[in-house]
Write a structure and sequence with these properties.
Structural class: alpha+beta
Order of helices and strands: HHHEEEEEHEHHEEEEEHEEEHEEHEHEHH
Shape: elongated
Largest sheet: 8 strands, mixed
Number of helices: 12
Helix content: 25-40%
Oligomer: single chain
Length: about 450
């Protein structure tokens, strides 16, 4: 899924100024706290970087993460976690009970993308696999899930070593199939909250391709969007291009539908409610002088609230039907509109919990934590909050991944930043992993203070 940190206008200018701190890439080595946590992270970094490089070189596609899950499950088991594999097909759940207290769940996603890597890294992936399309492709961790897993192991190691500093139940999960939006739901359907301790708090991070390495960004409330994929099939009455009066042209009907869809956001949804309707594909016909008997649209629909989502989806169906009727199509040849299921729901960071965690991280990472605008990308982490919004507190935050020199060059207009999912995406992995490991560990320790004598 797309999760790149994006900003516009004055917000972008403010963030660019704040993110131009010199020598940021080295900032994480300065330990201003007395708990020794940062020093412990740095001691573990050689092993974590080695793990990251192995994960990067050996990515696996959604629901194919067999080797990845097995190697990380083995590490968690060696740390003393009670580990269950095969949850939601290829997911892993690692539980450590440590007395009375809250239950905290840390999540990392495992899957790579069907992308042929072009980073030139010495440990670049040369893996190939066959995705759902059935066409063999290269596979790459182009979304940074390899950094997520390395930091997940880093936090697991530190929390296992520091059991005398926390009290409660730690649930650490490795989720499959985030890129297809199916993995979180699959784990929940397989009893994640019934077979294992249900969390009071769920935490995760994602690397960001629009921020310098080591910065932490967060949004309160809606952080990422509902993501729907909609297919529209438009029947027509085909014929010869020289005699259009004998046909009902689905290309013309489709063109009217595409144009009319623009009014959903501009004229039907409140300007205060974010919404996106993008037609990504329009296919019809096979020859210059043949009017086709069918056209097909593929549409991505983005929103935050369930109400706006329903409004947009209803509007697409209404417009498709209405334009076909306006073109004189009979009732038995009206467009069919299919919303793919499951969809990716919006991700909601519970505000008070977010403020609590980020207050602690702001003190620990002075000058490196900033509230950032929400984005219209998608992330199925939101499923865990939606499974029980009455009792589960949720937060996903960003950790910048752009090498500092490249980020500064981009601010001077001397370099372009690549996005997540790019075959060229190569984050400053050591800084991402070190920052995220410390952040996840520190936040968990704060949420699970030691109780009793």
């Amino acid at each position: 899924m797309i999760k790149q940190l994006m900003t516009t206008g004055t917000a972008c200018a403010a963030l660019a100024l704040a993110w131009s701190t010199p020598a940021l890439a080295d900032a994480h080595v300065e330990d201003v706290h007395s708990d020794g946590l940062r020093a412990a992270v740095m001691e573990d970094m050689p092993g974590l970087v080695e793990l990251y490089q192995d994960l990067h070189a050996n990515p696996e596609l959604s629901f194919q993460e067999f080797e990845t899950a097995a190697k990380l499950a083995e590490r968690a088991r060696a740390l003393g976690f009670e580990v269950t594999e095969g949850v939601g097909q290829t997911g892993v759940v690692a539980v450590m009970e440590n007395g009375e207290g809250p239950t905290v769940m840390l999540r990392a996603d495992m899957d790579g993308l069907p992308v042929i890597e072009q980073t030139g890294l010495p440990y670049a992936s040369t893996r190939t696999a066959v995705p759902a399309s059935g066409v063999e492709t290269g596979v790459m961790h182009a979304c940074g899930h390899d950094t997520h897993m390395a930091a997940w192991i880093g936090a697991a190691q530190l929390l296992a070593e520091r059991k005398d500093e926390w009290s409660g139940t730690l649930v650490m999960i490795l989720q499959p199939a985030e890129e297809t939006g199916e993995g979180a739901l699959a784990m929940l359907a397989d009893g994640l909250f019934e077979r294992f301790p249900k969390p009071d708090y769920v935490l995760a991070f994602h690397d960001a391709a629009g921020a310098p390495a080591g910065f932490i960004g967060y949004s309160k409330g809606y952080a990422l969007a509902n993501v729907d994929s909609v297919d529209v099939v438009i029947p027509g009455i085909g014929g010869h291009g020289a005699y259009p009066h004998t046909t009902k042209d689905p290309v013309v009907i489709g063109a009217h539908i595409v144009t009319r869809l623009q009014t959903l956001v501009s004229r039907e949804v409140s300007p205060l409610d974010p919404a996106v309707v993008t037609v990504g594909s329009f296919r019809a016909g096979s020859k210059h002088n043949i009017i086709s008997d069918e056209a097909r649209l593929q549409i991505t629909v983005r929103s935050y609230t369930d109400e706006v989502r329903a409004q947009l989806l209803e509007g697409i169906a209404r417009i498709a039907r209405g334009e076909a009727l306006a073109a004189g199509m009979p009732e038995d040849l009206l467009p069919t509109v299919t919303v793919q299921d499951p969809y990716t729901p919006s991700t909601y960071n519970t505000p008070e919990f977010t403020e609590q965690v980020m207050a602690g991280l702001s003190q620990r990472f002075e000058g490196r934590v900033m509230e950032t605008p929400s984005v219209m990308g998608g992330e199925d982490f939101g499923q865990f909050y939606r499974a029980d919004p009455e009792t589960v507190e949720s937060l996903i935050f960003w950790v910048g991944g752009v090498p500092q020199e490249r980020y500064e060059a981009s601010q001077r207009g001397e370099a372009e930043l690549v996005s997540l999912h790019s075959p060229f995406w190569a984050p400053d992995a050591p800084v991402v992993i070190a920052t995220a490991t410390e952040a996840l560990t520190a936040a968990t320790l704060d949420l699970m203070p030691k109780t009793g004598g």
